[in-house]
Structure formats: C-alpha cells, structure tokens
C-alpha cells in the first residue's frame, strides 16, 4: 500500500556521460518502491514510444550528424511527447516520477555547446513549461566519466564521441546551473555506489516529507 499521504513528485537525475546517474535513478526507484511508493522510472531522450524513436536519431551516428539547432528541435519534440504520454499521466496518479535526464541536459548539450541558451529557454517555456521538483546532479571528474562511458561500447555514444573538452564544458555548465537553482542537490559521484544511493534516498525522503 502506498503511504497515506502519498503525493506526486517529479525528480530528475543529471550529470555528464558516465557519471552514474542512470544507475542511481534505478536504485532510487527500487528503494522508493520497497517503501511502498508508486514510482514511474523513465528517461530522456525517450520515455514514450514516439520519443524513443527520436532517441535513436540523436544518440547514434556521427558526432556531426546534426547541428545544435536541429538537435534542440528534436529533443524538444521528444520531451513534449514524453511529457504528454508519460510524465503528466503519472503525476496525475500521485506517483513519483524519476527521469534520467530532462531539460537541464538540453540547456547543457545544446544550449551551452551550441551557444543557444536563450533559444533553449524560450522553446522550453513555450512547449514544455515544467521543471522537476528536485534535481540530483551526480558530479564526477570528466576524464573518469568519459572513460566509464566509452567503456560501455554501446551504440548510443554520439555525445561521448565529441571528446573530453565537451565533457569538461558540460560539467562546468551543470555546476553553474546548480548554483542558480535551489531544486538542485549536487552529489559527489566519485564515492562508492552504496554511499551515493543512501544520500540520494535520504534527500528524497526529506523532500517528500
């Protein structure tokens, strides 16, 4: 049974590639379910059938396949479908929604990398208009993160293939963004996974009250 005072909450995980955010998102979802909370675990790009189709377009292929402007439009289209088909319905059921990446990643990978910050925010306000209640930024040294990410040897490595300089730029950008918004919790991702998971669960339960 869910807790009697169960209320909706929207949580996001952000960080550079290889930071461990996907693992920690899964672990938080499992821990909250064990405590009786209804949870929807999702991801971006993706999280709905239409958005998953766009995911293949933006995460695979040559690093120069798309311009930052085209990527921004593709990611926004995917996010809008994700919001309509997955996030809003789950929140309306008073579930806890945990997403592996959301709009902050677009602010970094397209807004910062493509010098499109004002365009990213304008398009977000127009088409999305939603921010997480709480964002966990898993912070990690870019060299370690990139090494981990490339070690996975998967097919979705278009952004990893952009190299270390981009990962350093993304880390600095994420930390600067976190300093501006109280919803962020910066988590030291260089520790063992159990310690990271325990801290994130504690912060989440405090937020849920």
Explain what the structure shows.
This protein is an alpha/beta fold and 209 residues long. It has 8 helices and 5 strands, in the order βαβααβααβααβα. Strands 2-3-1-4-5 form a 5-stranded parallel beta sheet, with helices on both faces. Helix 2 runs antiparallel to helix 3. It is globular and about 50 Å long. The model has no long low-confidence stretch (mean pLDDT 90).
How many helices? The count is 8
* Major pleated sheet: 5 strands, parallel
Number of strands: 5
Low-confidence regions:
none
How would you sum up this structure in a few lines?
Helices cover 55% and strands 13% of the residues. A five-stranded parallel beta sheet has the order 2-3-1-4-5, sandwiched between helices.
Descriptive terms for the model:
globular; 13% strand; 55% helix; 209 residues; 5-stranded parallel β-sheet; 8 helices; alpha/beta
């Amino acid at each position: 049974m869910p807790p009697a005072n169960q209320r909706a909450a929207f949580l996001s995980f952000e960080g550079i590639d290889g930071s461990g955010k996907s693992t920690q998102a899964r672990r938080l979802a499992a821990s909250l379910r064990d405590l009786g909370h209804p949870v929807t675990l999702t991801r971006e790009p993706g999280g709905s059938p239409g958005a998953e189709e766009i995911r293949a377009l933006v995460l695979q292929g040559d690093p120069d396949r798309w311009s930052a402007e085209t990527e921004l439009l593709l990611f926004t289209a995917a996010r809008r479908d994700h919001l309509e088909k997955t996030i809003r319905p789950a929140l309306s059921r008073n579930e806890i929604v945990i997403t592996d990446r959301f709009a902050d990643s677009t602010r970094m990978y397209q807004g910062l990398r493509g010098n499109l910050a004002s365009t990213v925010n304008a398009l977000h306000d127009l088409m999305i208009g939603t921010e997480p209640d709480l964002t966990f930024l898993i912070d990690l040294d870019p060299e370690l993160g990139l090494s981990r990410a490339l070690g996975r040897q998967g097919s979705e490595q278009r952004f990893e293939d952009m190299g270390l300089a981009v990962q350093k730029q993304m880390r600095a950008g994420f930390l600067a963004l976190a300093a501006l918004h109280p919803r962020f919790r910066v988590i030291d991702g260089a520790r063992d996974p159990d310690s990271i998971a325990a801290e994130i669960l504690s912060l989440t339960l405090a937020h849920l009250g």
